[in-house]
């Protein structure tokens, strides 16, 4: 499986990223593909909603795992929060935490990187 790296600036591009990731994951179980595509959607949408500069998506296969990374220029780190039941949104990180075996964020030289990892087996 190859490494995928795609820059983005707007939410409409998440559909392109999902198609490219689905191509990369061809042959993997359908449930895994759907989980990874949902992780991509939520992480990219968070960048689009909370920053003004877009970012870059990396899908990184490693021994038995797949890591979805989103790099952006913001220094503000995501925090899991209790969702407001009166609002339609605000559940993205809860979905990421529920789907991924692990997730987190770290500072980079130009902002931050938020990642989520799933097992391939």
From TrEMBL:
GO terms for molecular function: protein serine/threonine kinase activity. Residues 9-117 form the Histidine kinase/HSP90-like ATPase domain. Keywords: Kinase, Serine/threonine-protein kinase, Transferase. InterPro entries: Anti-sigma-factor_SerPK, HATPase_C_sf, HATPase_dom. The keyword Transferase applies. The keyword Chloroplast does not apply. It comes from the Bacteria. This is Histidine kinase/HSP90-like ATPase domain-containing protein. The lineage of its organism: Bacteria, Bacillati, Actinomycetota, Actinomycetes, Micromonosporales.
